């Protein structure tokens, strides 16, 4: 029997519906909406389309949304000053700077300038330190790993004591998700192995996995024979493998041999329509959480 599909598109709908209810409660209690600013520098087409989707989603939830587009020529100092102004703006609870930034701007400096209490993308070192400590110290989860964990929990995948193998050790996906799933608590308590380009016997590790999370950026890296029968497979990879001659749009593929894997796995995420849609939903969830914290006076608590 083919594996059950875990649809990010469907789960996103459910999560956004829940958030709509929370936004209404925030408005009723505080007379204010969650405030999100999306800062886009330049006109990189992929960035424009990501930002547009984020802005539309925020508006559909009734957020106070500011789309702040700046020209490619903006200096680093000007961008830092802009971020500082949003750090001080009481109506803004989340600040998102769309990456990549132009080469003359130091991305790290910019991301570190965001007030950690408004770091809804979850990339600030303080946010990641809190994530490492776990429990009540956690403030915002980085969006893609948060989306993965939410998919696992909402699809009924057992994580307690499960063997989880994460392929890829990036700061935005592999490293944080491996820490999150190994923490003590619900939706975690897994035994996690993090594998990468220097790992010996990659296939053997994957074959042990009850839950296999792949974020390598290599199309078809994980072969059908590497999957344990009944495993849950989360394919984070988004790779452009060609152009559809009829639509002119990119043909996307994940990191897993999907057709074969679907015959072996218990549950699997598609690409597109899997992890991708969850990432935006988690950005909105972080912004709503930040609004509760700021408006309720708890944002500066340790
Ligand atoms: P990255 O590109 O920064 O790093 C890739 C990681 O995979 C590295 O740690 C590397 O060691 C490992 N790796 C690469 N080739 C490997 C191999 N042959 N064997 C074992 N390990 C290998 O990673 P990233 O930024 O996490 O992106 C990974 C993929 O996930 C990309 O396709 C990216 O587009 C996608 N992605 C999707 C979303 C989403 O929202 N759906 C978000 C972030 C990233």
Explain how this protein is built.
By secondary structure, this protein is of the alpha/beta class. The chain has two domains: 27-121 and 281-301, Leucine Dehydrogenase, chain A, domain 1 (Rossmann fold); 142-271, Rossmann fold, CATH 3.40.50.720. The protein is 40% helix and 16% strand. The chain has helices spanning 8-30, 45-60, 76-87, 107-113, 125-133, 143-154, 174-182, 202-207, 258-264, 275-295; strands spanning 4-5, 35-41, 64-70, 94-97, 163-167, 191-195, 211-214, 232-235, 239-243, 250-253, 267-268. The strands form three sheets. It has a six-stranded parallel β-sheet, sandwiched between helices. Strands 3-2-4 form a three-stranded parallel β-sheet, sandwiched between helices. It has a two-stranded antiparallel ribbon with strand order 9-10. The longest helix is centred in the first third of the chain and has 23 residues, at 8-30. The protein starts with a strand and ends in a 7-residue tail after the last helix. Bound molecules: nicotinamide-adenine-dinucleotide. The site of nicotinamide-adenine-dinucleotide has 23 residues, from helix 10.
